[in-house]
């Protein structure tokens, strides 16, 4: 009985799932992390290095690393990759000009050995902005349907109101146990 309990506990209870939150500077990564943690909008400044927080969703523990997205910091994203189970890629849906850079970064990550088992959640953030791209437009531009070797999901959201964030987390929890 004790052994069975211990096994179940290790499967569903205490195990921590590593998540990296990436995306270009100003996409809203830090805002999303603290919405997850506190259900409120915090005042942010550009992240130099990273923030890390434990987020618990229905008894599932995620260790979330929010990594600075400025150009000079992107080359060190790979130092966070080992043992990552989920990549949360945050896109600023109003930033049409830089979506091509996000695309390059996405495919660079997917090709990285340390991320070969990672599932990808794409947040199409800032949906409150007038004239923003829809999740469908972003999906088409990023050619997400061509990704066959990683589970992926795109979710539109607004980090300021929190809209869409829970649905993203629900997709992540639904993936646990699948693999
Ligand atoms: N309108 C709007 N603004 C948002 C939203 N999410 C974040 N922001 C704002 O966008 C700005 C940048 O947000 P951050 O969370 O600091 O961005 P970041 O991705 O962590 O940026 P770096 O740390 O530089 O990589 C802040 O002024 C946020 O308030 C959103 O959904 N809508
Ligand atoms: Mg930040």
TrEMBL record:
The keyword Zinc-finger does not apply. Mg(2+) binds at residues 30, 47. GTP binds at residues 23-30, 69, 125-128. It holds the Pfam family Arf. Keywords: GTP-binding, Lipoprotein, Magnesium, Metal-binding, Myristate, Nucleotide-binding. Belongs to the small GTPase superfamily. Arf family. One of its GO terms (biological process) is protein localization to Golgi membrane. This is ADP-ribosylation factor-like protein 5B. InterPro entries: P-loop_NTPase, Small_GTP-bd, Small_GTPase_ARF, Small_GTPase_ARF/SAR. The lineage of its organism: Eukaryota, Metazoa, Chordata, Craniata, Vertebrata. SMART domains: ARF, SAR. The keyword Ribosomal protein does not apply. It comes from the Eukaryota. GO terms for molecular function: GTP binding; GTPase activity; metal ion binding.
């Amino acid at each position: 009985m004790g052994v069975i309990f211990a096994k179940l506990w290790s499967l569903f209870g205490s195990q921590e799932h590593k998540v990296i939150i990436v995306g270009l500077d100003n996409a809203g990564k830090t805002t999303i992390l603290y919405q997850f943690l506190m259900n409120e909008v915090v005042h942010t400044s550009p992240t130099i290095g990273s923030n890390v927080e434990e987020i618990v969703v229905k008894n599932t523990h995620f260790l979330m690393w929010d990594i600075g997205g400025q150009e000079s910091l992107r080359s060190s994203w790979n130092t966070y990759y080992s043992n990552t189970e989920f990549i949360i890629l945050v896109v600023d849906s109003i930033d049409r000009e830089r979506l091509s850079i996000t695309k390059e970064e996405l495919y660079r990550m997917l090709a990285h050995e340390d991320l070969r088992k990672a599932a990808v959640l794409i947040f199409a953030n800032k949906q409150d902005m007038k004239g923003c791209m829809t999740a469908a437009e972003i999906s088409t531009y990023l050619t997400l349907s061509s990704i066959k070797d990683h589970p992926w999901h795109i979710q539109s959201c607004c980090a300021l109101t929190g809209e869409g964030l829970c649905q993203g987390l629900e997709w992540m929890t639904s993936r646990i146990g699948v693999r």
